[in-house]
Amino acid sequence: MSPLSSPVTGATPVIGVLALQGDVREHLAALAATDAVARTVRRPEELAEVGGLVIPGGESTTMSKLAALFGMLEPLRARVRAGMPVYGTCAGMIMLAEKILDPRSGQETVGGIDMIVRRNAFGRQNESFEAAVEVAGVEGGPVEGVFIRAPWVESVGAEVQVLAEYGGHVVAVRQGNALATSFHPELTGDHRLHRYFTDLVREAGT
Amino acid sequence: MSTTLPTTTQSAETGTARVKRGMAEQLKGGVIMDVVTPDQAKIAEDAGAVAVMALERVPADIRKDGGVARMSDPDMIEGIIEAVSIPVMAKSRIGHFVEAQVLQSLGVDYIDESEVLTPADEVNHSDKWAFTTPFVCGATNLGEALRRIAEGAAMIRSKGEAGTGNVVEAVRHLRQIKNEIARLRGFDNNELYAAAKELRAPYEIVKEVAALGKLPVVLFSAGGVATPADAALMRQLGAEGVFVGSGIFKSGDPARRAAAIVKATTFYDDPKIIADASRNLGEAMVGINIDTLPESEHYAKRGW
User: Fold this and answer.
1) Taking the CB of residue A192, how many other CB atoms lie within 10 A of it?
2) ipTM, 2 decimals?
3) Which helix (H) or strand (E) is A133 found in, with range?
4) Is A61 in Cβ contact with B86 (below 8 Å)?
5) Lower CB density within 10 Å: C or N end of chain A?
6) Alpha helix locations (H) across A120-204?
7) How far apart (Å, rounded) are the C-alpha atoms in residues B72 and A180?
8) What is the pLDDT averaged over residues A18-43?
């Protein structure tokens, strides 16, 4: 389906982690634990070689600037539009939002999920917290949610499936092959959400 | 849709080690810039900084002015917090836990217990476990880094020699830390006890580092980075990101230099991009040769 390439076949999906800035290593380790081949992606040609992509936690303003500066925004949009599975955590969730409630000037997103997000919605670092979060579709009890200066989802379109809420706010969503969480499963030893994503990439066969 | 959602009842816990260390993990691959005004903070944010360090004077000016360097004015820190949406860090003096309490109450995102300010206690660093706000601390070697982690530091930066624009000490300290970690990797369990004694650090943390092959917290580099190539050098040597102090706002064209250092930090292993980032930046800050500094002005020797 993808106009760029479809290099992944068979049982082991190749999943990239957008490595412009952020907690890339933790995502690589979590993906490897789900039997995916994980690699970093910083350039359009590297993006063309993966079947799915994780956009990690980090600073969304920095990530957005670097993506625009190094010609990654359009290739990312094209792959996401073409159905490549993508999973964003925290800043990655912001990158997947069609709209940011309070963007910095010129802050652009990749889009892919019809939602409006509020940055740093749960507060500054002193308000950052851990809590158990039940996620629809993830078996075996709540996941350990690590929320760091985390965003929440302010509103979603009709096509978006809400997977989790915390404190009355939407913190995990899915639309088609695009998945996003306000929290950071990559900072925990609980890889169920990464496994969920790896399965999604395998099924998509991108 | 939400009516079918399982409900989450457990309460939230703030200030955990995972939340504090995890915050630094989000800064990786990025540049943290010293700023002294809200306008500078905005320039830093626009250039792609992952965080700013709010302080009254950059280290180069602290050197020039002399006297006792202290925590910044709360008004000035709050002005910077208001001006940007990226995390804001601020410095307390070594061992001055009341300055740290004040910074926490102001809502800064990270506290740097910093040798750049004049130490308040020549024996003790602050107990950093006592705070919700995470701390970053400087280190010149592995033992120092591990003592700070034992005290609760959630992030370590090599000290370098701040305010000199000379990267030589940052290189020395980072190499020292990396080499000592590599050496630990080769030790068997029997040797780790003696290593802990030699490093003057708790055995449990020494054992953890030997097993991980890295610090249990994020390691950045600081002190003397002035050019895109300096930043890339520190990353190739193993720093997970860089602090740039005087190097940006003491240069000819801060906005341009800040953006260039951000680019070189992300593409630290791509000489072509570093070359492009290095073009036409205007004047770099005037550097100081470390061996011309009197002993008392070696900031890296503060803290233990």
Assistant:
1) 19
2) 0.93
3) strand A129-133
4) yes
5) N
6) 192-204
7) 39
8) 97
